[in-house]
Amino acid sequence: MDEKYERFRHFSLLTAIPTVMVAGPIVGYGIGYFFDRWFSTDPWGMVFFSLMGIVSGARETIRLIRRVERAQRDEQPQTPPPSKQPSSPPHRPNRAL
Question: What is the pTM of this model?
Answer without folding.
Answer: 0.68
